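User: Hi! I have a protein structure encoded as tokens and I'd like to know what sequence might fold into it. I'm fairly new to this, so please keep things simple.
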């Protein structure tokens, strides 16, 4: 069967391949180098420190083959894939790897060494490939630790075998810690194959991170040829040690008598954890005496913290900060995030909103609660309405009433003239009416609800009665509406969306400097956010906690844009009991968000605390605790609903009455005309 052997120069992206014979094997072996050629001479890998070896399965002819280039004369490759007879160093290492991965169920592994020479590497690769196990060799520790990057590498759940002496293992682990925690010890598995017993187990354990998943194999002190297997135990008090879980023999392989991967500790043994605290109303505040000593901590995060302290058995020592932290020009961070990266504090029980930048350097728990970005502004105020008398009806109603006045006057004038011309002698001859005078009479009737200069004609009188009736209804409606408008004052429109805030140039948007909210608004591509950014002002936490700032918010000078806990939580400190509320929280969130507690990467207490927060949220405990701290003591009601302007829909009955009056008046006029016409015919 044919296998594929390839050499890759990643700096020049130059790929070459040559075909070599592989005896009865079902996989491919490839060697990659990042700076030159690599040679395998009789079971020994020799090359520069960028050499990496991996084993993969070949593609069948049906699926096509890789693009192969003819071998180059510069390819200096000599490979022997036939396994050496035991005792071969490579065969022993191969058996180790196969037995370890078989017991743990892993099918791929990274072999990390210190140096560039690994004896029997071809035999190891050959044995693993026959079991369909992928292997990569990393002699260059720096390249191994940095090839994925700080985010991708930290999220990668891989298996690593460290092969070498006690000194090699200590050097590799110590070097690993210098790369900003690019490997997550909580989701990666480490197998340490130590070839000697120079360093004690405790010395090796002290080198490792607490709570890391680590298996140690080293020669037995009692029987030559046998190896003892250990697992790292982290009891929770900050210490760690190796515990025997089995042994490896040449005949029976690896046999374990205890769990390979111990359960994480649920008891921190009363250890003291340093927490980072930013005084934030209703979240977490430190109360100190006049001498500066700690009196108590208050806030919903403190209640959650106390539950966790009782459950996991630990104490806390708070360390105060003024800022959350932001990235500096040199790539480092200040504030809480900076000390988390340096592992000066164990965690922070504050309501952090994770961002892409912060996730690249620290860890977060399960989300503690929803904390969307909202707008806290002045509560709606009663409007001053100088034109209240004209606001009862809409402009359309006023226009129609004016038309009705003129039309009614014209109709009455027509009735009077028809009676004079068509019914002469029936009624006393009046003074010839002027159209303007008749319209004025009708208008006075509607405005003053008094009928003056009532015409003698019966049909005209009926029409005037209907006009007077309409005037009475309009007057009652107007007076009732005025009363309602006075009793139910109209309030200013609240700010419910960031679009409304960006369009309202009388209010200045404000947020906390260096906050996540500021970053989200400034870096957003949305047009409304960009308009908001043009007028956005930032202040430090000290000013945002002051009475001066919230007085400005209450009178409509500023609108505070930040998370619900940051804005409304602070505002509640300045509300007065049972008085009308000063502040209003927007109904629509500007940006949705979740809060979580930040931890350093590879924190030994992160997993336990995060899991318990998850279950407290699942059972509704977190939401219940938090809701107690955001209860408003001010009066949020307005007592009555706001009246709206009356439109034609409400007043349409009035005009129906007037139309009926016109019809009845006209009918009576026709009847009079017919009656008196017939009467004249018989005289």
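Assistant: Happy to help. Inverse folding works backwards from shape to sequence: for each of the 683 positions I chose a residue that suits the local structure. Here it is:
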């Amino acid at each position: 069967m044919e296998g594929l052997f390839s050499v890759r120069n990643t700096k020049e992206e130059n790929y070459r391949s040559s075909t070599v014979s592989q005896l009865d094997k079902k996989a491919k072996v490839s060697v990659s180098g990042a700076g030159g050629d690599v040679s395998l001479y009789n079971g020994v890998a020799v090359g520069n420190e960028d050499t990496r070896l991996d084993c993969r399965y070949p593609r069948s002819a049906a699926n096509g083959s890789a693009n192969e280039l003819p071998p180059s004369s510069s390819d200096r490759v000599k490979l022997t894939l036939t396994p050496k007879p035991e005792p071969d160093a490579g065969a022993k290492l191969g058996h180790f790897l196969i037995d370890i991965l078989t017991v743990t169920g892993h099918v791929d592994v990274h072999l990390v060494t210190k140096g560039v020479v690994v004896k029997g590497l071809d035999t190891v690769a050959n044995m693993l490939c026959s079991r369909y196990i992928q292997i990569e060799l990393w002699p260059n520790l720096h390249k191994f630790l940095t090839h994925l990057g700080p985010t991708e590498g930290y999220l990668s759940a891989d298996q690593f075998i460290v092969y070498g002496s006690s000194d090699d293992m200590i050097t590799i682990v110590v070097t690993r810690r210098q790369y900003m925690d690019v490997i997550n010890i909580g989701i990666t598995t480490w197998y340490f194959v130590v070839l000697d017993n120079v360093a004690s187990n405790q010395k090796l354990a002290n080198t490792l991170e607490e709570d890391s998943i680590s298996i140690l194999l080293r020669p037995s002190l009692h029987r030559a040829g046998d190896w003892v297997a250990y697992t790292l135990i982290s009891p929770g008090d900050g210490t760690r040690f190796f515990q025997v879980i089995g042994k490896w023999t040449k005949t029976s392989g690896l046999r374990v008598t205890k769990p390979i991967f111990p359960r994480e500790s649920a008891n921190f043994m009363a250890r003291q954890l340093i927490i980072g605290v930013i005084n934030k109303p209703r979240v977490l505040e430190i109360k100190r005496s006049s001498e500066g000593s700690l009196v108590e901590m208050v806030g919903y995060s403190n209640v959650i913290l106390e539950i966790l302290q009782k459950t996991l058995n630990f104490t806390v020592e708070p360390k105060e900060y003024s800022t959350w932290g932001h990235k500096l020009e040199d790539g480092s961070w200040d504030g809480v995030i900076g000390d988390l990266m340096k592992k000066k504090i164990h965690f922070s029980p504050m309501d952090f909103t994770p961002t892409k930048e912060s996730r690249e350097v620290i860890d977060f728990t399960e989300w503690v609660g929803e904390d969307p970005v909202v707008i806290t502004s002045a509560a709606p105020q009663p409007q001053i309405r100088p034109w209240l008398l004209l606001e009862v009806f809409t402009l359309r109603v006023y226009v129609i009433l004016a038309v009705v006045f003129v039309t009614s006057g014209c109709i009455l004038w027509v009735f009077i003239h028809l009676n004079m011309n068509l019914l002469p002698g029936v009624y006393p001859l009046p003074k010839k009416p002027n159209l303007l005078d008749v319209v004025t009479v009708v208008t006075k009737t509607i405005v003053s609800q008094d009928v003056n200069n009532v015409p003698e004609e019966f049909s005209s009188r009926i029409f005037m009665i209907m006009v007077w009736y309409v005037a009475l209804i309009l007057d009652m409606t107007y007076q009732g509406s005025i009363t309602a408008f006075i009793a139910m004052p109209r309030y200013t429109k609240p700010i419910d969306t960031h679009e409304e805030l960006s369009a309202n140039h009388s209010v200045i948007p404000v947020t906390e400097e260096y906050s996540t909210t500021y970053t989200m608004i400034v870096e957003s591509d949305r047009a409304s956010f960009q308009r908001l950014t043009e007028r956005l002002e930032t202040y430090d936490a000290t000013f945002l906690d002051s009475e001066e700032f919230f007085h400005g918010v209450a009178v409509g000078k500023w609108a505070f844009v930040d998370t619900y806990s940051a804005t409304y939580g602070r505002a509640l400190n300045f509300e007065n009991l049972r008085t009308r509320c000063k502040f209003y929280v927007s109904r629509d969130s500007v940006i949705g968000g979740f809060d979580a507690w930040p931890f350093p990467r590879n924190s030994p207490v992160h997993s336990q605390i995060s899991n318990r927060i998850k279950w407290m949220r699942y059972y509704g405990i977190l939401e219940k605790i938090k809701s107690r701290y955001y209860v408003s003591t001010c009066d949020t009601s307005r007592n009555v609903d706001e009246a709206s302007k009356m439109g034609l829909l409400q007043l349409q009955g009035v005009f129906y009455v007037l139309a009926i009056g016109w019809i009845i008046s006209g009918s009576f006029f026709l009847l009079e005309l017919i009656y008196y016409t017939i009467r004249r015919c018989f005289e």
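A useful reference point when you look it over: The two ends are 138 Å apart (CA to CA). Feel free to ask if any position seems puzzling.
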